[in-house]
Amino acid sequence: EIYYNATLYNQTTQISTSYYKLEASAKLRLPPAAYDYAAGGAGLETTVAANRAAFDNWSIVPRVMRNILPKRNLTTTLFGKSLPAPIVMAPVGVQTMFHPDGERATASVFGELGLPYTLSTASSTGFVDVAEANGDNPRWYQLYWPTDDDLTRSYLKSAKENGYDVLVVTVDTWDLGWRTRDLDRGFFPFIRGIGVQIGLEDACAHEKLGFNPLSPNATDEQKQMAALYHVISTSRGVSPIWENLPKLREFWGKGPIVLKGIQSADDAKKAVEHGVDGIIVSNHGGRQIDGAIGSLDALYGISKAVKGKITIGFDGGIRSGADIFKALAIGADFVQIGRPVLWGLAHEGAVGVRHVLKSLLAEFDLTLGLSGCKSVQELNQSFLVAR
Ligand code: FNR
Fold first, then answer.
1. Nearest residue to 139 via CA among 154, 151, 125, 150
2. Which residue's C-alpha comes closest to atom 3 of ligand 1?
3. So where does this one cross the membrane (predicted)?
């Protein structure tokens, strides 16, 4: 049972239930490179802002005097599995940047709550250790699709063997966006020309880099960023294409395949045509293209085009229970939580992650009830009005 009394819980932790205070105190706790890596976006960061602004384009219209009991039903079925709530961990790489327990902490808390945990290809912790921390609970694997088929097969084999049973293929990040906060720290030469052409070790030693992540003097952040960029460089700046999906299906075998990073209704229709099991409407938290459509605005058009034909996930800017309500009402079948979990992780690892998730669940449950819904299945666009 994950229904949660936030008021009670709040007496047992010093961590704020306000997202903005949580982020501010995470910033104080984290090394600046780690905070900027997580908080930052592409270019002028207008897409990061658009993701939030899109939530303000919709207002909740509550219904009252209905027979609502103190406990709402958040249960949802995704890809044939019953889950306690339609909430999934967004894949996030190199989590030991935010706390030494990194992925172990986040995977253990998602496991405790029975909510799916998505392991990133750029994880700082391996398949086996994360599976062990996650226990006998649903877990998914996010793939940065390498150009080398042997490498792809080997990733998928490890995922399958360790119980990751939904494959999430990120299609918007075959090259990294223009992230100025990271560029200014000298993190990028790995993929921008140098890493791809001459390999990791030589790239690390390259004078233009300004630091050598393989040297004993490198900071932890520098080493982790180097590993991340190395993973991305396995796609060598080459975009995945629809035509190669059958090959991926063959490598993965039985089990759902979900495309993450869909923003256009036409691409959503193509995903349906290609027999993909799900899509995740996402712009990578505004980290890839500056000046792009807010993810919730994209969700509206995509729901209109493919709702009911394919499972629709959503991420980008979810910060509160009301945000979860709006995304599901517009048409998402599930939502993913990204940055809030990282800010939680920065607060003593699992303790902070648990606090963030339980607060989100409690606020969502409460918003659902106060708006006149007994269950998530009752949510639809009639509960919203566009501003
Ligand atoms: C991400 N995201 C991401 N996505 C992915 O498919 N693989 C990855 O390894 C990562 N890594 C990653 C690191 C960090 C620090 C962030 C903030 C994000 C994108 C993530 O899955 C999700 O799409 C966004 O985080 C959603 O935006 P918000 O709600 O976190 O702002």
1. 125
2. 92
3. none
